[in-house]
Amino acid sequence: MRRIVLVQLVLFAITAAVVVPFGIAYVAGPGAFRDPIRLHANMSNALGLTAGTSVTYRGVQVGQVASVALAPERGGARIEFDLDAGTRIPRDSIAKVGMGTVAGIQNVDIFPNTDTGPYLEDGDELSAPQDRQPVQMDRLMGDAAKLLDGLDPDDVGTLGTELGASFEGLGPTLSGLIEDGDKLSALLDGQAPQLRSLFVRTADLLGTMSGTSDAFVRGTGAARDFTEQLDAGSPVLVYLVDRSPAALNRTRDLFDRYRNSFGALLANLATVAPVISDRRSALAAGLDEIPEGLGKLESIVKGDRAQFALVGTQGPVCNYDTTRRAVGDISPIDPNLTLYCPPGEDIAQRGSRTAPRPDDLGLQNATTPGTVIGPPMVPDPVLVPTGAEALDQWNQLLEELGNGER
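User: That's the sequence. What structure does it adopt?
Assistant: Structure tokens below.
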């Protein structure tokens, strides 16, 4: 008999050792045998929180409010939370006080801003900004009560009567509106991808415009100024509108008449354009020098005629065997200071010998002579007169001969 009792006691002890911890874990939760994570939040208004209020994270209960107390040094209230051990909540999360049920029972819901760590640890502060808290039920019910107190029952009755009268006989029309709304909804649903793309692009456009607001304002101001100028020049615009059709017709006739020639001209431009594009620097220099050259041409004008002189020779010059660069290459290069023109009579000196050299180098390292080319120098330039000048000289000679006979 004693053996049976002993066996029963052993079985009872084993059962209790298994069932009791399981029951405690079932009732108290997963943190029954581990210390909870203690967090705190500082709020200017506790919003009616009390110890035992549930705390949820992503809608799942993870703990409860441990205590609520005043914090005079911070001018508000200090709320402490006990969260289940092992709960991982990002540090940038915020706590909001809301209603867990329609019965108005409060709870604290934690909203994360990221899905990754670092995570809150025991003793950390959980942010609970007051301006991020939702409107509380007591305030909402108070505002609703004030709104209802401000309504006159007679006015509400009159409004209902007038609305009934206004909708009387409009049943078919309302039915048609509902059916059309259903068709419109179906149409919008079928065009949902295009509408979504349109909204996304509109959002991107608005974002770009917000980033360039200053330029947009300046552009709007320029458009306004342009519009004012157009308004001020309205007589000229009216004149152009009246006479432009005739001018455009003449231009069209010109293009129609010479359309084959225009084609050849465009083809020639396609050939010439690469040549000009490779010589942009030379063309720019030429455009700078042409006005000065035209001014100097005035010096050859004598009365109503222009005098030209042809220089038959200029004497020999020095030639240097240097590598020519590609057209359009304007990259800087190092000068060759070893080139010089060998001394000689009537040689046009060119090269580094006649150019200023830095650091008083003079003729040092001048080791590469140039090659003398060209015809020899004549005592005086040979002037070749034009036909008109020769005729004038002949007539002048005849006149002098005639004067000598008299």
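The mean pLDDT is 78.
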